[in-house]
Amino acid sequence: MEFCIDNGVLWDFRDDEYHTRITIPHGVRVIGESAFADNEFLYHVVIPDTVERIERDAFLNCSTLSWVLIPDSVTYIGPYAFADCRSLKSIYIPESVTEIDPSAFWLHKDWDEYLPCGPFYIYGKRGSEAERFTHHHPFIFKESTTDNH
Predict the structure, then answer these.
(1) What pLDDT is attached to residue 18?
(2) pLDDT of 39-93, one tens digit each?
(3) Confidence (pTM)
(4) What span, in angstroms and rounded, lies between the C-alpha atoms of 124 and 3?
(5) What is the sign of the dihedral through the CA atoms of 25, 29, 35 and 40?
(6) Distant-in-sequence contacts of 106-113, Cβ < 8 A, 24+ apart
(7) Direct distance between the N- and C-terminal alpha carbons of the chain, in angstroms, rounded to an integer
(8) Domain 2-143: what homologous superfamily?
(9) What does the domain layout of the chain look like in residue ranges?
(10) Whole-angstrom Cα distance, residue 148 to residue 136?
(11) Residue 90 and residue 103: Cα distance in Å, rounded?
(12) How far apart are CA 71 and CA 52, in angstroms?
């Protein structure tokens, strides 16, 4: 397993042993564009509390990904960050997140259209960006008092 990191940006992940569970190294500030894209073995990801941004396509098409822990340090979830993660049915979004791209959790239908994956539950605190996001997009908000919903 190899994490390719430059100046706090994790820009690639190489894994010849097909690990299903990973913990991103402490010190990573940004999960870069397409860092884990198309990984069909990844099931469980722990993101350290040093990460502030999850960029475009970071986990795009990780078809078996079903559990992600997003820490309170993350403020941004980019376009298609978790798109086509067909096994991901819910996620806890901490209050620290202030921007979520509308396409962050969508499923690819064809080359021109993405649809919300559903049913998809977003857990978070009342009044948070997570709740506001679900008011404008077809996802279901569930209030949670913990990040382990």
Answers:
(1) 86
(2) 999 999 999 999 999 999 999 999 999 999 899 999 999 999 999 998 998 899 9
(3) 0.89
(4) 29
(5) positive
(6) 106/80, 107/83, 108/61, 108/83, 108/84
(7) 29
(8) Ribonuclease Inhibitor (3.80.10.10)
(9) 2-143
(10) 24
(11) 15
(12) 9
